[in-house]
Amino acid sequence: MGAGEPEEVLDYPIPSPAALEPPPEWARLRDRCPVARVTLPSGDEASLLTRYADVKQALSDPRFSRRLTAKGAARIADSESGGVFSSDTTDALPQSGQGHLKWRRMVGRWFTAKRMAALRPGIEEIAHRLLDDMVKSGPPADLKAGLGFPLPVWVICTLLGVPDSDRDRFAYWSDTMLNLTRYGDDEISQAQAAFAAYLGSHIEAKRSAPGDDLLSELITATDSDGERLSDATLVATGKALLVAGHETTATMIGEMVAMLLSDRRRWKRLLADRSLVRTAVEEALRFDANPGIGLPRYISEDTEIGEHSLAAGTTVMCSMAAANRDVAVFANAADMDLGRSPNTHLAFGSGAHSCLGQALARTELQAVLTVLLDRLPSLELAVDVAELRRVEGLPVGGLREVPVRW
Q1: Any idea what the CATH number is for the domain that residue 354 is in?
Q2: pLDDT (tens digit, 9 = 90+) per residue, 361-403?
Q3: Is the distance from CB of 316 to CB of 294 less than 8 angstroms?
Q4: Lower CB count within 10 Å: N or C terminus of the chain?
Q5: Measured between alpha carbons, how far is 298 from 66 in angstroms, rounded to an integer?
Q6: 2 lies in a domain?
Q7: In terms of residue numbers, what domain contains 56?
Q8: DSSP letter at 276?
Q9: How many domains does the chain have?
Q10: The pTM is what?
């Protein structure tokens, strides 16, 4: 804070007065208190980073660990089970060093540009089918429920080689894993146990009858030392892919469209110039004011961040969304520039733990936007922007619904 001002402790996530607008505190914190004290939903305290340089450093520096189960680390979720931050999820996947690099290389083989290009026609096909149903029912419609949620679930079911008929269960399991305040401990524990049991049985079935999917490939894949992934790691990988590939992309589809339609000049510009689809997706990722809680990190030694000192035992919250509005990095950061290039946003993190599925997310977002522009050029919000409502109780943020008409 400024000289002579008492240090305040903010509740985190910081609320915003409008669904598509950033909290006004972000600019103040970046300017005057880039390492701020905050209270998490669990009641524990952490340090919040809001400047681009600081957030990028914390996400790239191996001293800032993902080991949130370490003694003294702040609890993120308001539940004993911890949801996606639970020990069962984090301990089964190597979090650092050579183990993490080996796991990432094995899983990353699937997310090549060639595979993503091969997936795109199928993604566009399912988008057309979902829009067929929306158009048949007629406007107004909830774009998030009709398109944003079912499409990423279909993609993840395809990647994991599970029946599309199980997508409703996958959506529920994803919700419970991402819990902050929405579900109780018993419900979370039961859901996660059911999901782990499902994946365990599914992996056994894939051993007997492998398919053309990621889990079938990982069951027999070996790392550079000739070792295979354990069943526990395979289950944890399936969990991680569900969370990373479902809820986050689903919320971003809805928010991207809402941002573009909130000022219809943006939509019209894309209708006139489809070459902007790729950069528009990147700008939507940067401009998103409601991506959720950000990424937590824990330090076990005294560490410097920028010009600030952090004591061992500190849990840090990295707000990529606040960093993505940093005027020191992005010219006219408060404006949505559909042609912005280069666009070095941090929506997918940075460093060794940057989002493994970011190529898939980009493919989905670009495919959905292209199909929407083709099918529904007259698309517009069916409510005033001020009536849009944020999701509460999950760390991924997003809008509760995106009412549209055409």
Answers
A1: 1.10.630.10
A2: 999 999 999 999 999 999 999 999 999 999 876 677 899 999 9
A3: no
A4: N
A5: 6
A6: no
A7: 9-405
A8: G
A9: 1
A10: 0.90
